[in-house]
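pinning this so it doesn't scroll away 📌
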Amino acid sequence: METAQNELMRAMATLLQDGKFSDLTVACGTQKYAVHKAIVCSRSGFFEGACSHPFKETSTGVIDLSEDEEEPVKHMIDYFYHLDYLTQSKPRASSCFVHRRISQDKRRRASSIKQNLAMIEDPLLACAATNPASQAMSNLPLTPPEDDSDYKQLHFSPKLPSSPESLPEEGDDIAFEPLEPVQATKEPNMVLHAKVYAIADKYDIPGLKELARRKFEAQVAQHWDATEFPDALEEVYCSTIDTDRGLRDVVLQAFRENPRLAMKAEVEAAVRDLAPLAFELYKVASGLPV
């Protein structure tokens, strides 16, 4: 017999697939998604604001996100209705990633100040909101061991404890997000998860941002030696601000646990290009808080 939770999730997926009762269109490049205000506005501060105030989107019923890449936007829409994204690994056109020089557009994007939108409670995902204890853990300094004689190899201290998952309190709505650990896929998708993390931050979707962080962390733990890793470094440090430690601490932890990373030519080239990353690695190796 189908459980109430599964029935609800199947109904949500059908709404997206059929577009029935849709009252809003999200456009991105060549793609258009027939969505529902009751779903997307309750999960995103950006969409709630766009549909609640006298903006152009209110009268046209179309929100144009063409300035964003199509794939992250697709995963964002999938998350609204499935509470997950990229559940099946897609084959890559090429398994070879070559580190590219940072574009000026990305440099400007990294230095821009993001808008501080008000957080709104997610009625279907109450446990996704980050609790104060989790925030405190994310701000802990990453410091090297007392014996730092092997400085050049960046031999850092053991891994910090993981931030605890926030649990629903009595009276909260039932949360449908899977609580089991995120498993890394066979193919590395570190760059993609970093892009989804950035778009979740941009459009104020806390649950998606946390899910993307968990997926990114799982991928880095398994694929830190993949040729995609230098590009993931670039994406992380060019799409997040200094105070957003979600992905940056995962990157620093990878260097802590895998000293061989610092000896790879492609990684060295990425670190030379990314001054914020180089400075943070210096602070970690010097025992300074990040």
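📌 and the second one:
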Amino acid sequence: LLDFPTPLGLRFSLSSLSTPTFATSYMLRSLGLVDGSLSYLYSSLPLSAPSASSSLPLSHIVPGYRVLSSLHQPDEPWLWETWYRGRRIDKRDTLLYGRLFLPRSTLEAFYLRRLSPRSQLKVSCVSDSRLPNGGTVLALLQHDTGRFSTEGLYSTDSALLGLRGLYNFGPPPPPPPPPSPHTAAHDLHPTITSSSSSSSAQAAARLSLGAEAYFSPLNKSGGLSTGLRFSTLAPHPGFPYTMTLTLNPLMGSLESTYSVRASELLALSSRFDFNVYSYESGLVLGMELWRLSD
């Protein structure tokens, strides 16, 4: 609600989900000069996203206020195992994405690999002759246990190393239901149980604490920041709202936000930032207003 790009010029995009595992997208933009991009996406896990614009609500693809979902405990690793005649034949899902910008010949690539029910690997890279060393690569290793999640990263740009962590206070997420027994010995499909079931008593709000630290051995520089968030969940009887507090001790920056969904068609947000070194401050207000079609 507070930070969003302002459209410039004319932009036309056309996307298609030709198969459940393959999608394409084409973009043409006119901003003084005409340029565009070609995008391709492959997923070993079939996608269930709507392929028709008429069946996709506009509010689902426009950035705005979102109500957090309940925490879910990941499945146990043995639930993803599939055995056939004494051999393990299960595979891990993979996602590949590539985007070529024309006429600049800039290439973006993205690789995502599920390592286990609680961890995954993400590798993204950019190839451009105008960048140092002709491009950069960013690798992230993510681990999520439901209540606590961590993320380690490495970037070839200045050999940057980073570590992030997020902890959610409150009751632990409910355990996944027990798996159903196989009905046939020759079943080749893994029995993956859904961990989306929730207990009868759900929390109405959630308090989260996060922190991140970065260090570059080449530049001999680093960064540190921490944040606190309180947000209501779906069971909350009143208006959904979210409050955040972010602190960067090295830069002396302090930032607080408050967002509320006053109704199904109206959301309001505000942000106040202050720097303890320069005494500079700022206030930003934002609003999201929808109009129902006749």
